[in-house]
């Protein structure tokens, strides 16, 4: 296995960091050591601002620190600090279909009662729409509370089922991600989208590490793709343990 044609591609939230928290210095130092052995890349559903925040740097610093940084599943792609590509879900869907989905979603969210609700229930990104029943402006404690409540009551699972029925002809995919939200994007615009750049650059060994690799999770498609070697992790500490056994 050559280091030149091998890349370790990491999900961010839950894999390199605790949910929506910043990377620890221990994990950051570990990635710097790993870069001496293989190429290191990041892929997340969040926008580049949130990924940079979690990776404890500015956008310029983080995109320069790792050879590849794929935000919004790779619809916004950076290589060696430069922007490679930016996709647009608005152009893909068109304004009429986009508003139909947003209006339906806001109506459904207004009908759901939760232990608490905050703000930013729909976040519009370049390559996807992020839907959060509790609202993305919730605190970490409120986020944890919703996650536990959702496990018991299946709030997001129910919404995904309804979205699939209501928008079955829209060419959209609905993926439960992180603790509080659902990612909505065109079919094929999941994390596999980023693989096109790695294949073009000649990588033969693509190791992907993610925490939500089960069907319906936002790491499943890239984890199960035949061109990757998928690894399921449970925490940043587990990520370090698995990578160490493989490469260090």
What layout of secondary structure does this protein have?
Blueprint: E1 6-10, H1 25-34, E2 39-43, H2 48-54, H3 59-65, E3 68-71, E4 76-79, E5 82-86, H4 89-93, H5 95-110, E6 122-124, E7 129-131, H6 140-153, H7 155-166, E8 172-177, E9 181-186, H8 195-200, E10 205-210, H9 220-224, E11 229-232, H10 236-247
Parallel strand pairs: 1-2, 1-10, 2-3, 10-11
Antiparallel strand pairs: 3-4, 4-5, 6-7, 7-9, 8-9
Secondary structure class reads: alpha/beta
Low-confidence stretches: none
Oligomeric form: single chain
Q: Roughly what percent helix?
A: 25-40%
**In CATH, what is the homologous superfamily of the largest domain?**
HAD superfamily/HAD-like
Kindly identify the CATH topology of the largest domain.
Rossmann fold
What would the principal axes of the Cα set say about the shape? globular
CATH architecture assignment name of the largest domain: 3-Layer(aba) Sandwich
Strand count, sense and closure of the main sheet? Answer: 7 strands, mixed
Number of helices: 10
Strand order of the largest sheet: 5-4-3-2-1-10-11
Kindly report how far apart the N and C termini lie.
Answer: 13 Å
In CATH, what is the class of the largest domain? Answer: Alpha Beta
| H/E element sequence | EHEHHEEEHHEEHHEEHEHEH
- CA radius of gyration is 18 Å
What's the count of strands?
A: 11
- The percentage of residues in β strands lies in 15-25%
Please indicate the count of domains.
2
- Average pLDDT works out at 95
GO cellular component, one term: cytosol
Active site: 11, 13
EC number: 5.4.2.8
Protein name: Phosphomannomutase
């Amino acid at each position: 296995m050559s280091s030149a044609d091998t890349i370790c591609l990491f999900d961010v939230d839950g894999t390199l960091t605790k949910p929506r928290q910043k990377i620890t210095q221990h994990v950051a130092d570990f990635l710097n050591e790993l870069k001496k052995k293989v190429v290191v890349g990041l892929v997340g559903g969040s926008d580049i601002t949130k990924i940079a925040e979690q990776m404890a740097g500015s956008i310029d610093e983080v995109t320069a620190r790792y050879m590849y940084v794929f935000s919004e599943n790779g619809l916004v792609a950076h290589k060696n600090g430069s922007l490679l590509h930016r996709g647009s879900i608005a152009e893909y869907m068109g304004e009429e279909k986009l508003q139909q989905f947003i209006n339906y979603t806001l109506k459904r969210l207004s009908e759901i009662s939760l232990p608490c609700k905050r703000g930013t229930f729909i976040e519009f990104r370049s390559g996807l729409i992020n839907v959060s029943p509790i609202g993305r402006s919730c605190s970490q404690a409120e986020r944890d509370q919703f996650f536990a409540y959702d496990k018991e009551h299946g709030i997001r699972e129910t919404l995904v089922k309804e979205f699939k029925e209501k928008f079955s002809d829209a060419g959209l995919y609905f993926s439960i991600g992180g603790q509080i939200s659902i990612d909505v994007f065109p079919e094929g615009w999941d994390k596999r989208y980023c693989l096109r750049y790695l294949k073009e650059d000649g990588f033969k060994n693509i190791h992907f590490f993610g925490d939500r690799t089960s069907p319906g999770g936002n790491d499943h498609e890239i984890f199960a793709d035949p061109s990757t070697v998928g690894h399921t992790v449970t925490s940043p500490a587990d990520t370090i343990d698995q990578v160490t056994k493989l490469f260090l």
